[in-house]
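Appendix B. Raw example, untouched.
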Amino acid sequence: MHKDALLKKLNDKTAVIGVVGLGYVGLPLSIRYAEVGYKVVGFDIDQAKVDILKNKQTYIEHIPVQGIAKAIESGFEPTTDLSKAREVDALILCVPTPLNKYREPDLSYVLTTVDALVPHLRSGQVMSLESTTYPGTTEEELRPRIERAGFKVGEDFFLVFSPEREDPGNAKFSTHTIPKVCGGTTSSCLEAGLALYEQVINTVVPVSSTQAAELTKLLENIHRAVNIGLVNEMKIIADRMGIDIHEVIRAAATKPFGFVPYYPGPGLGGHCIPIDPFYLTWKAREYGVHTRFIELAGEINSAMPEWVVEKIADALNERERSIRGSRILVLGIAYKKNVDDMRESPSVELMSLLQAKGAHIAYSDPHVPTFPKMRRYSFDLASVDLTPEVLASYDLVLLATDHDKFDYETIESHSKLIVDTRGRYLGARPNVVKA
């Protein structure tokens, strides 16, 4: 009975959708549900974010104010009040799953959120966890908490795992065009999960369990991490041999089968690729498996900033300068091009390493006007304008994130020395060093 009533509400769009965590995943999802006609309640612990949304403004660059304004006008309600969870039919959890200082999974955001929601749950709801995590989390951590509150999962409460697949700054794909994987705790849970997503996502891909859905997300990100580790290692070999790895990758990518191009960089960034593989590494220990591939890729990728610093030291040394006392301008501090997302950005690690060696650091990033508050790093800096005079005043310009908004000709013409970690400058150039 509970299931049929829920399915009917989801299918005829009379269901109220609750999205918990209004960040890079939760906010676009909320807007999408509002767009197709659902009433949406958005929960976040940050009152400042809620106030910005209520004022029809944005705090994420690639999510435009028009979309937020339209959602608010059609009844999207941002709030910090978790007791409103009783009013919704679906709860979609989009909260962070970082690593702790021992590189182990930190599920505290997920578990404190679920614990805070439990007193406000009611029969006939569906809960979907979208946060990336190790296989077994939904079954081992969420299900017992819900059942301790007196619900029977699969009968009067429905539980699914459906991993987020956002790609900020990718104009080719949006929330509703990216296929969505969904696994349920029971077959009834899966039915509820499919009904929850099918109205807003073009293609929903059912899998047999929440564990399969959890592992799917990890495989996707491990695939990227391992391949990026491979090209980062190839970059070091090519550099020793005096070969431009970017030229080689572009040539290899002309093969129409059996090769997918991945590009090296100054390290891994973002909330997924540097973090998610270690969720599987940690869980695999329980089964006596040592994930060598994943750990090797992690070692190579996390060593990249140090390798770039060595290249910077060598480039300055060639010009009879040391890192200590040099003025270094870092171009691009977001973790990937054309976005304002700073999470796990290798640029910031580079700034920290260079400053520790005595460099005077500045940065320019059209997407990040002032350096944000971060857990591990603190720089009291604002983005500088790239005028010819400004560029000429630095001993070295480090291209860390290759935003399309940069004027690369002006940068090359007026910089004394450029260290390019992104392969933006092809061929031999007198003032460019590849790193």
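End of appendix B.
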